[in-house]
Automatic annotation (TrEMBL), chain A:
<dbReference type="InterPro" id="IPR033948">
    <property type="entry name" value="ETF_beta_N"/>
</dbReference>
<keyword id="KW-0813">Transport</keyword>
<protein>
    <recommendedName>
        <fullName>Electron transfer flavoprotein subunit beta</fullName>
    </recommendedName>
</protein>
<dbReference type="Pfam" id="PF01012">
    <property type="entry name" value="ETF"/>
</dbReference>
<dbReference type="InterPro" id="IPR014729">
    <property type="entry name" value="Rossmann-like_a/b/a_fold"/>
</dbReference>
<comment type="function">
    <text>Heterodimeric electron transfer flavoprotein that accepts electrons from several mitochondrial dehydrogenases, including acyl-CoA dehydrogenases, glutaryl-CoA and sarcosine dehydrogenase. It transfers the electrons to the main mitochondrial respiratory chain via ETF-ubiquinone oxidoreductase. Required for normal mitochondrial fatty acid oxidation and normal amino acid metabolism. ETFB binds an AMP molecule that probably has a purely structural role.</text>
</comment>
<dbReference type="InterPro" id="IPR012255">
    <property type="entry name" value="ETF_b"/>
</dbReference>
<comment type="subunit">
    <text>Heterodimer composed of ETFA and ETFB. Identified in a complex that contains ETFA, ETFB and ETFRF1. Interacts with ACADM.</text>
</comment>
<feature type="domain" description="Electron transfer flavoprotein alpha/beta-subunit N-terminal">
    <location>
        <begin position="24"/>
        <end position="216"/>
    </location>
</feature>
UniProtKB/TrEMBL annotation, chain B:
<dbReference type="GO" id="GO:0005777">
    <property type="term" value="C:peroxisome"/>
</dbReference>
<dbReference type="InterPro" id="IPR004113">
    <property type="entry name" value="FAD-bd_oxidored_4_C"/>
</dbReference>
<dbReference type="GO" id="GO:0051990">
    <property type="term" value="F:(R)-2-hydroxyglutarate dehydrogenase activity"/>
</dbReference>
<dbReference type="GO" id="GO:0005739">
    <property type="term" value="C:mitochondrion"/>
</dbReference>
<dbReference type="InterPro" id="IPR006094">
    <property type="entry name" value="Oxid_FAD_bind_N"/>
</dbReference>
<dbReference type="Pfam" id="PF01565">
    <property type="entry name" value="FAD_binding_4"/>
</dbReference>
<dbReference type="InterPro" id="IPR036318">
    <property type="entry name" value="FAD-bd_PCMH-like_sf"/>
</dbReference>
<keyword id="KW-0560">Oxidoreductase</keyword>
<dbReference type="GO" id="GO:0071949">
    <property type="term" value="F:FAD binding"/>
</dbReference>
Length: 253, 504
């Protein structure tokens, strides 16, 4: 049976309206509600289902971030993860934390914890980088099954159905392997009350990037963060003739 | 494959009223006058010269006469009532409203004021050929005092737009209801709408600070103050709160907005029986105290049919009853301590069988969406008789059981859900299609039972077109007489929303 490591990121909740900081260095996060990255919820759900199906022996949730990342880890524990590792990264270092850093951390932890499968969300809804799974696989030199919409056990390893442009691709990988969860992989559960209570007592270990020997100096520089262009207001026209006239006027027909 | 975030759709998408209606049957409802056997009163009949006059005030575009364009304004949200109006007027200013009413009063032309048309008692659509006075274009926000929380706006502002606006400024609207994406503040005031958080923020008689209204003869009545306290003479604003457009037309509203809560949590629980809901409510009041902001219930049928019909997903498994408890507070740590004590006590005592709790906005939205969608979910299955009654808590659920028993040999599903904290239950009776027989099985039976239980036959939706003949089950003759006197004095020709609220 395998041990599964799941990466969970704390991001601005997707029901919250995101605001760009006036100095364009990033987005406002102070006092803004955060939640687990929705794709990571799918990753946790998949790992927990593997455990329920007795394909996995243990599920370890990992989050890199400030103290509040522990709330995200508690959510993963309440969903069914067995224990958690909080890689504490705060302040300026957190602001410039990039997928490469996270991948190095996950790779190191996978080795330390003797994980057989690493699952992360295909992307985080804040930076939309879509890099962590791929980089983790590269660093570990493990096979990868990204954009997974179905994961099944096969004799030698896993059969992974991937969402690709224009259809589905089915691949087989050996273990150990890295997976990234796509939207249709599963529908994540809500943490139930008894499990929320139990999660409070599950073990959570705190480590630093330094403990893991990962250098956090930034490799990418954010030049500027801007609001998307505002959509122009529409206009209601009284009839088809006016519509056609307007379209001609605008050179659209 | 990377999909842009805009395609990233869980089932959180706002299932607003418009999208729910889409599911409803496309068959046109019968004319209300025929369905309920009503006789037209001797009002004036619309003439071409009347239309010309309206166009002279409003211009061509805001006088709608095309039959297919007028149709949606003739049909109510539950597709129960259908009027025969020939014209919809869309004023933009109080002066225009005043001119229209003054003219109609002179010509004895009857008028039906209409807000977002989400009313559930047929009050918002004409019965015969009343002129529809629609407030969609009176949608300007006039001012917001961020210190006192006083918002002043025109009556056609959509509740959700107002809420979005004040939230940006750390305030919230004092009311919230499933129809928020469509209903107008003027409609809310005119129906004295209750909604999901009345328990916490009180009703509109408390939070409306002032208003501007136009009387039937066109007189503009200025009671638009933003003061919390103003004991100078009679409190006239209350005449327009809940009078459903029969005493005057509301054109502007001043309303008090409470502070945006910094900490919000939502629990959704499975409960074995109704007794335990009451038990949990008592506990919530004592252990959550001032942070309790909503306490709602729904029976199994309400939730499972909603989830099925609208393809939502239920966050917990199947239980006989569901309870939704929300808290609004100012300190997350304080609130979560209270909440976890409340939860562990609830679980240990077995009152809560299972459930989930979250303070993540997206998850809370998904859970609220289930509760808010119950009102409309039945439309997919057929015809929905809807009742909205207040019953003393001890007997809160009795009526659902009585009805199930009464209808056991019929093809009818009876669902109960509502605002437990306010003693207000909604009952949906879903049948494949409307029949006179089913109608007479339900009414006046339901109202008789409510009267026996000393409840109200209309808790928050109003009387509208559907209930004037039953109002006596809840109001004494002496009260009805004064209502009639008031109507006579404020609208002597009876042009404002006739056939509604008061019995003949
Ligand atoms: C999904 C759903 C959920 C709902 N939930 C609740 C709830 O929780 N609580 C609750 O109380 N109600 C609820 N309702 C009922 C309804 O939404 C409310 O009664 C709402 O306040 C009506 O507002 P409206 O703008 O749609 O008014 P309309 O339906 O257009 O009109 C309602 C009445 O007010 C009159 N009126 C409207 N605007 C004016 C005006 N400016 N001046 C004078 N009279 C006017 C109309 O003539 C009519 O009699 C719900 C409805 C739906 C469809
Ligand atoms: C020390 C002190 C402190 C006060 N603090 C406040 C305060 O904080 N807030 C505040 O609002 N007021 C305050 N007041 C004013 C006063 O106490 C209130 O207005 C109170 O509500 C009056 O009640 P009462 O029974 O004394 O009425 P009365 O003084 O007897 O009558 C007041 C008015 O009501 C009428 N009235 C009385 N009873 C009836 C009835 N049954 N039916 C019809 N009409 C009736 C009377 O004709 C009269 O017009 C205070 C007064 C004092 C002396």
């Amino acid at each position: 049976m395998s041990r599964v490591l799941v990466g969970v990121k704390r991001v601005i909740d997707y029901a919250v309206k995101v605001r760009v900081k006036p100095d364009k260095t990033g987005v406002v996060t102070d006092g803004v509600k955060h939640s687990m990255n929705p794709f990571d919820e799918i990753a946790v759900e998949e790992a927990v289902r593997m455990k329920e199906k007795k394909l996995a022996s243990e599920v370890i949730a990992v989050s890199c971030g400030p103290t509040q990342a522990q709330e995200t880890l508690r959510t993963a524990l309440a969903m069914g993860a067995d224990r958690a590792i909080h890689v504490e990264i705060a302040g300026a270092e957190y602001e410039t934390l990039q997928p490469l850093h996270v991948a190095k951390i996950l790779a190191k932890l996978s080795q330390d914890e003797k994980a057989d499968i690493v699952i992360v969300g295909k992307q985080a809804i804040d930076d939309d980088s879509n890099q962590t799974a791929q980089m983790t696989a590269a660093i570990l030199d493990w096979p990868q099954g990204t954009f997974a919409s179905k994961v099944e056990k096969s004799d030698a390893g896993l059969t992974v159905t991937r969402e690709i442009d224009g259809g589905l691709e089915v691949i087989k990988t050996k273990l150990p392997a890295v997976l990234s969860a796509d939207l249709r992989l599963n529908e994540p559960r809500y943490a139930t009350l008894p499990n929320i209570m139990k999660a409070k007592k599950k073990p959570m270990k705190k480590v630093s990037a330094k403990d893991l020997g990962v250098d956090l100096s930034p490799r990418i520089k954010v030049v500027s963060v801007e609001d998307p262009p505002v959509r122009q207001a529409g206009a209601i026209v009284p009839d088809v003739d006016t519509l056609v006239a307007k379209l001609k006027e605008g050179g659209h027909v | 494959m990377i999909r842009p975030l805009s395609l990233f759709i869980f089932n959180l998408n706002k299932q607003n009223v418009k999208t729910q209606v889409k599911f409803a049957s496309t068959v046109l409802p019968q004319f209300s006058s025929e369905k309920y056997g009503v006789k037209r009163k001797s009002f004036g009949v619309l003439q071409p010269r009347d239309i010309d006059y309206f166009k002279s005030i409003l211009g061509e575009d805001r006088v709608v006469t095309d039959e297919s364009d007028v149709l949606p304004f003739n049909i109510d949200w539950i597709k129960n009532c259908r009027g025969q109006s020939k014209v919809v007027l869309k004023p933009k200013t109080t002066e225009e409203v005043s001119k229209i009413l003054s003219y109609c009063n002179g010509k004895r032309l009857a008028v039906c004021p209409q807000g977002g048309n989400t009313g559930l008692v047929g009050g918002s659509v004409p019965v015969f050929d009343e002129i529809v006075l629609n407030f969609n274009l009176m949608n300007k926000i006039i001012s917001l005092d961020e210190i006192s929380g006083a918002l002043v706006c025109e009556s056609g502002c959509v509740l959700e737009n107002l809420d979005d606006y004040v939230r940006e400024r750390n305030l919230i609207m004092p009311l919230d209801l499933g129809a928020k994406g469509s209903c107008h503040i003027g409609g809310n005031v005119s129906t004295n709408a209750g909604g999901l958080r009345l328990l916490r923020y009180g009703n509109l008689h408390g939070s409306v600070l002032g208003l501007e209204a136009v009387k039937a003869d066109g007189t503009v009545l200025d009671c638009l103050r933003t003061l919390k306290k103003d004991n100078t003479g009679y409190h006239l604003k209350h005449l327009f709160i809940g009078s459903e457009g029969t005493l005057g037309v509301v054109t502007k509203v001043a309303i008090h907005c409470p502070a945006l809560p910094k900490a919000v949590s939502l629990g959704f629980f499975g409960v074995e029986n109704f007794e335990n809901i009451l038990n949990l409510y008592k506990r919530a009041k004592t252990s959550l105290g001032e942070i309790l902001s909503a306490f709602e219930m729904a029976d199994n049928g309400s939730v499972s049919s909603t989830v099925k019909n609208l393809k939502l997903s239920n966050p917990i498994s199947d239980y006989p009853f569901y309870v939704l408890v929300e808290t609004h507070g100012s300190d997350e740590t304080h609130d979560s301590e209270k909440l976890s004590r409340f939860l562990s006590e609830g679980m240990e005592s077995g009152v809560i069988v299972d459930g989930t709790v979250t303070s993540e906005p997206a998850k809370m939205k998904t859970i609220w969406n289930i509760r808010e969608s119950i009102a409309g979910a039945g439309l997919v299955e057929g015809y929905s008789f809807k009742y909205d009654v207040s019953i003393p808590l001890r007997n809160y659920y009795d009526l659902v059981e009585l009805l199930r028993d009464r209808l056991k040999d019929h093809q009818a599903k009876v669902y109960g859900y509502g605002h437990v904290g306010d003693g207000n239950i909604h009952i949906n009776v879903i049948v494949p299609e409307y029949t006179k027989n089913m109608y007479s099985m339900l009414e006046p039976y339901i109202f008789e039972e409510v009267a026996k239980l000393k409840g109200s036959i209309s808790a928050e939706h109003g009387v509208g077109f559907r209930k004037p003949q039953f109002i006596h089950y809840s109001k004494d003759e002496s009260a009805l007489q004064l209502m009639k006197d008031l109507k006579k004095s404020m609208d002597p020709n009876g042009i404002l929303n006739p056939y509604k609220v008061l019995p003949d």
